[in-house]
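User: Please fill in residues for this 79-position structure.
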């Protein structure tokens, strides 16, 4: 998981499956973390085609929440 990116901007969580992306969306919604389910940007790759965009300043919270769930996170990248 990337930690060298600046605090501003957005990050995305890439998943191995659509089910993982949808499960993570429910988890972040329940935790009150602002996010949006989007298609994976072309310069990134993913098996499922969907990712979750979030404010990069929430990265640590997102990592902590998703680290406890088995949702098939591929990686977290800064945009």
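Assistant: Residues filled in for all 79 positions:
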């Amino acid at each position: 998981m990337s930690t060298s990116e600046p605090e501003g901007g957005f990050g995305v969580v890439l998943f191995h499956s659509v089910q993982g992306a949808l499960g993570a969306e429910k988890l972040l919604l329940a935790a009150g973390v602002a996010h949006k389910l989007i298609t994976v940007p072309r310069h990134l790759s993913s098996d499922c085609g969907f990712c979750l965009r979030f404010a990069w300043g929430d990265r640590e919270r997102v990592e902590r929440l998703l680290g406890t769930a088995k949702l098939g996170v591929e990686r977290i990248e800064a945009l």
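For context: The first strand starts at residue 10 and ends at 15.
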